[in-house]
Amino acid sequence: MAQHPLCPVADDGTRALTLSAIGTPQQALVNFVYDTARPVWPSVGIGLEPLGGDLRCEQWLVAAPVRFGNGENWHWSRNGELLMVALTAPDEGDPAETTARFYRELIATVRSAGYPHLLRIWNYLPDINGGHGDNERYRRFCVGRGQALAEVGLEDARMCAATAIGTHDDRFRLFALAGRTPGQPVENPRQVSAWEYPPLYGPRSPAFARATAVALADDRTALLVSGTASVVGHATAHPGDVLAQTDEAVSNLAALLTEAASDLQRPGLARFGEEAAARVYVRHAEDWPVVHRRLREHWPSLPLAGFVGDICRRDLLVEIEAWHCA
Ligand code: 3EB
Fold first, then answer.
1. CB atoms closer than 10 angstroms to residue 170
2. CATH fold for domain 14-325
3. Residue 107 belongs to what H/E stretch?
4. Could you tell me the distance, in angstroms and rounded to a whole number, from the CA of residue 164 to the centre of ligand 1?
5. pLDDT at residue 5, as a whole number
6. How far apart are CA 274 and CA 281, in angstroms?
7. What DSSP state is assigned to residue 110?
8. Cα 314 to ligand 1 centroid, rounded to whole Å
9. Which letter, b or e, does each residue of 196-218 get, where b requires 16 or more Cβ atoms within 10 Å of its Cβ?
10. Residues of the chain scoring pLDDT < 50
């Protein structure tokens, strides 16, 4: 692992995101572990091949005590404020069906458990670019998600930050963080809101916020930043050029952080600081070294983790998500 001297990462590659007051007893709500074969909940894998970088594990810490449980296809963990749900199922049939089922189950669960506000969602689905035109699996995923949201009356503009990435394995994975109190969605002035994309990109526009801001107990704010790609307005910028796409994604993230700092009146959010980390998804593993080097130039001390993952538009080669506290 190429450890950068400025990165605040433990020797074992673990980076903690502390979602409760620093100095109080903490416990993991979830550990995203990148290279463990059979993690045990609340440790969990994301089904993508890791490419290296600074991180091996993200610990999402909250105030203890945390309780854990599971059902047939899912695990959960929760404390008094936050709930994490991980649903997984074999990938079968039309992704619209699986997705609608997952989202119905997710929303029913978070509501009945008393954590009705979605704060961050990750969707990892096999073969995201399989199928043609409006039958492309990502577009069917968007149809299923949209249908479940419509059924429960959840407006797109109130959705949370999200990631949707294609895997090369055979399981559908959905992770969701939910809270007792709402987060605040943040949009990106350089980008059309995803739920307002024109039908050119699919019959059902994607329902997610560019970021969700979550107020923490000790007056910090966590900014949970969606997968961010080289999309300007609603169009893909620089098709075929992974480094130009990387720079454009970085510009999008800079604009988003500026917007968040202003919306929340919290100047510290305007740049990635001490408490932050990013996952980077590249479509082609061979692009990782140049993308990694370029990101290191933009962000000398931001801990990074690289993965092979398919981005939801075929012409996108790289996507970056992040969390960031200030
Ligand atoms: C984009 O800006 C890139 O459908 O949940 C990024 C993050 C993207 C989340 C989703 C899609 C999603 O449109 C794709």
1. 11
2. 60s Ribosomal Protein L30; Chain: A; (3.30.1330)
3. helix 95-113
4. 6
5. 42
6. 22
7. H
8. 12
9. ebeeebbebbbbbbbbbbbebee
10. 1-7
**Closest residue to atom 4 of ligand 1, CA basis:** 206
Angle, alpha carbons 89-49-174 (nearest 5°): 30
**Mutation pick for ligand 1 pocket among 102, 149, 208, 279 (CB with most ligand atoms within 8 Å):** 208
Locate the ligand 1 atom nearest the alpha carbon of residue 142 and give its number.
4
The secondary structure of 152-184 as a DSSP string is: HT--GGG--EEEEEEESSSEEEEEEEEESS--E
pLDDT at 13: 87
Helices 288-298 and 242-263: crossing angle, nearest 10°? Answer: 40
Calculated CA dihedral for residues 189, 192, 196, 201, nearest 10 degrees: -160
> pTM above 0.90?
yes
* Residue nearest ligand 1's atom 11 by CA: 164
Residue-wise pLDDT for 243-276, tens only, equals 999 999 999 999 999 999 999 999 999 999 999 9
Distance CA 246, CA 318 (A): 7
Structural contact between residues 305 and 278, judged by C-beta atoms closer than 8 angstroms: yes
Please tell me the residue having the least CA distance from ligand 1 atom 3. 229
